[in-house]
């Protein structure tokens, strides 16, 4: 049985964050507001929970799940190395609507899908999401919808689609504009724009001082 917590009420928000943290730590799924659309999340290091997340979305491992973090410093423990280009983008756009793809640390015991040794990272600009992430650590998060249906712009939309596959719904009110994050791949010799979203390609190029290559 899932529970919805109204995060506009201070007491309900406190109870909801506590329940969400307990759910994540026990391998269950939660829905949380972000600065783009609502997300469905799980402990990034719990492979069974990530599989349950993909199952709830009716999605296969061929579409891997990204990871949300609650601080800049968290990234250092997740990737093989943080290049200067990544640090420049983090300083310019985090927390915010930019996702960065980097080679993940080979020692990490996680299974986010068919990532080919990489991980997509983002730090969202939403107080409820950040508070939960800082409590439980990195979370595997995808848009809170069944594949093929529109991403949820509020907790009610998410619950209508995902039902009791999710234990805790954190209702943070309507999400921002339903514009996805921009994705920049820094795993190769030159940065590649995988998706242009809320952050313009021009803004990214200006920070990096180079033109972005196209997606192959």
UniProtKB/TrEMBL annotation:
Its EC number is 2.7.7.87. It is found in: Cytoplasm. Signal peptide: none annotated. GO terms for molecular function: ATP binding; double-stranded RNA binding; L-threonylcarbamoyladenylate synthase; tRNA binding. It holds the Pfam family Sua5_yciO_yrdC. One of its GO terms (cellular component) is cytoplasm. Residues 14-199 form the YrdC-like domain. It catalyses: L-threonine + hydrogencarbonate + ATP = L-threonylcarbamoyladenylate + diphosphate + H2O. Keywords: ATP-binding, Cytoplasm, Nucleotide-binding, Nucleotidyltransferase, Transferase, tRNA processing. GO terms for biological process: regulation of translational fidelity; tRNA processing. Its main location: cytoplasm. It is an enzyme of class 2 (transferase). NCBIfam families: L-threonylcarbamoyladenylate synthase (TIGR00057). Belongs to the SUA5 family. This is L-threonylcarbamoyladenylate synthase. The lineage of its organism: Bacteria, Bacillati, Actinomycetota, Actinomycetes, Pseudonocardiales.
């Amino acid at each position: 049985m899932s529970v919805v917590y109204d995060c506009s009420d201070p007491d309900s928000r406190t109870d909801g964050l506590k329940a969400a943290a307990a759910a994540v730590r026990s391998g269950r799924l939660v829905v949380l507001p972000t600065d783009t659309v609502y997300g469905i999340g799980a402990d990034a290091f719990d492979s069974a929970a990530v599989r349950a997340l993909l199952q709830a979305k009716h999605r296969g491992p061929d579409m891997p799940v990204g990871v949300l973090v609650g601080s800049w410093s968290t990234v250092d423990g997740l990737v093989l190395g943080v290049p200067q280009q990544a640090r420049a983008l983090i300083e310019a756009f985090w927390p915010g609507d930019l996702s960065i793809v980097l080679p993940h640390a080979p020692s990490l015991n996680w299974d986010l899908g068919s990532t080919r040794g990489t991980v997509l990272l983002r730090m969202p600009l939403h107080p409820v999401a950040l508070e939960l992430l800082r409590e439980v650590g990195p979370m595997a998060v995808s848009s809170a919808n069944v594949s093929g249906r529109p991403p949820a712009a509020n907790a009610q939309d998410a619950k209508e689609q995902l039902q009791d596959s999710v234990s805790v719904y954190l209702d943070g009110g309507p999400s921002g504009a339903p514009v996805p994050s921009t994705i920049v791949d820094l795993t190769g010799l030159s940065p590649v724009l995988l998706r242009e979203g809320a952050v313009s390609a021009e803004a990214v190029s200006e920070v990096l001082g180079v033109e972005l290559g196209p997606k192959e």
